[in-house]
Amino acid sequence: MTDQMVVTLAIATLVVYMLLVISSERRHQGARIIPTSNKPIAPPPPPIIDNNGWIPVSERLPDAYQLVLATYEDKRIEIAFIHLGGVWSGYFWGEVIAWQPLPEPYREVWND
């Protein structure tokens, strides 16, 4: 490569760079600059664990009188509902810790 080719290449690179900078500045003209802070970025929230559809009672309660599957602290499962006052009905094996809606009933599929 000759010296003239090197200079030509350098000038061409500089011109392309300047065109990119000018284009970028025109594109961002009038854009509001938002000041940043030195505060650290908060860590992402912990991942949501599916729990096979079980909802902890600490997160949410079912609607009043809605039949649900209830899990008790000793891991027993039964069908129960909650009264308007927040009292669970059903056989009591301890405190209800989680619940989930009842599944849809079985429906026979007819193949023609």
Structure, explained:
Among the domains are: 1-28; 53-101, no CATH class. Helix content is 23%, strand content 19%. The model has no long low-confidence stretch (mean pLDDT 78). The chain has one helix and five strands, in the order H-E-E-E-E-E. The chain is an alpha+beta fold and 112 residues long. A five-stranded antiparallel β-sheet has the order 1-5-2-3-4, with no helix packed on it.
The gist of it:
With 112 residues, the protein is of the alpha+beta class.
Overall helicity: 10-25%
Order of helices and strands: HEEEEE
In terms of quaternary structure, the protein is single chain
**Which sheet architecture does the biggest sheet show?**
5 strands, antiparallel
Main β-sheet, spatial strand arrangement: 1-5-2-3-4
| Coarse shape | elongated
Radius of gyration: 33 Å
**How many helix segments?**
1
- Kindly report how far apart the N and C termini lie: 80 Å
DSSP strand tally: 5
Which regions contain 5 or more consecutive residues with pLDDT less than 50? Answer: none
Structural class label: alpha+beta
Mean pLDDT: 78
Strand percentage, roughly?
15-25%
Give short descriptive properties of this protein.
112 residues, alpha+beta, 5-stranded antiparallel β-sheet, 5 strands, 23% helix
Question: How is this fold's topology laid out?
Answer:
Elements: H1 3-28, E1 55-56, E2 68-72, E3 77-82, E4 88-89, E5 96-101
